[in-house]
Amino acid sequence: MSQATTLARPYARAIFMLAKEAGSLKDVSEALAFSAQAVGVPRVADMLGDPRVSVAQLLDLISHPEAPESVRGFFSVLSENGRLSLLPEIYALFEALRAESEHVVKATITSAEPLSAESLKSLTDALKKRFGGDVEVQTAVDASLIGGAVIDAGDVVIDGSVRNKLVRLNASLAN
Q1: What is the Cα–Cα distance from 84 to 39, expressed in whole angstroms?
Q2: What gap in Å lies between CA 132 and CA 141, rounded to an integer?
């Protein structure tokens, strides 16, 4: 675990609890996503430690125009503690807490070729059945899989790729 993640964790939990109590998880998520992306811009990142840029200017620059007031207050606390650069990690941890609280499983399906809409729906339905809840699916393409797919859903990885089957076959033939 990186030091940034360790430092970001209490902040992510704090903003998550505030957002959950206020019933504004979606709005806070959008505001954090915007700001996390903003601090990732090199010119903005350079301003984070620049004493010539006031806190108010910095917050105006990185804050989503429709962000809840609690988010702006949260950013002030981050600024006071020199932690605005942690926003990408805070956002990632916030999203993990949000998904867990909403019982949503995030899965990535990597296939050798782009999946058809029908195949994607079938796989998504099967994942919903397996995990017993909502599933957010992202797709990726990796031609080195040769065929089949790899499904990564956090702690569960299902490797149904042809590449993996060939590796297992080669290992069994070698023994």
Answers
A1: 8
A2: 26
Token couple for 72: 């702006």
Dihedral angle of Cα 43, 45, 46, 52, to the nearest 10 degrees? 100
Find the helix or strand (DSSP H, E) in which 150 lies: strand 149-153
Rounded to a whole number of angstroms, the distance between the first and last alpha carbons of the chain is 37
- Cβ proximity of 156 and 146 under 8 Å: no
Distance CA(169)–CA(157), nearest Å, equals 19
- 67 near 49, Cβ under 8 Å? no
Contact between 27 and 21 under an 8 Å Cβ cutoff? The reply is no
Residues 6+ apart with CB under 8 A from 72: 59, 63
The residue whose two tokens read 């050798």 is 112
Q: How many helices (H) and strands (E) does the chain have?
A: 8, 4
Q: Note the pLDDT tens digit of each residue in 6-55.
A: 999 999 999 999 999 999 999 999 999 999 999 999 999 889 888 898 98
CA distances from 91 to 36, 70, 118 (A): 7, 15, 32
Sheet holding 149-153, edge to edge: 134-141, 104-111, 149-153, 156-159
CA 42 – CA 154 distance, rounded (Å): 30
* C-alpha to C-alpha distances, 99 to 5, 104, 128, nearest whole angstrom: 18, 5, 14
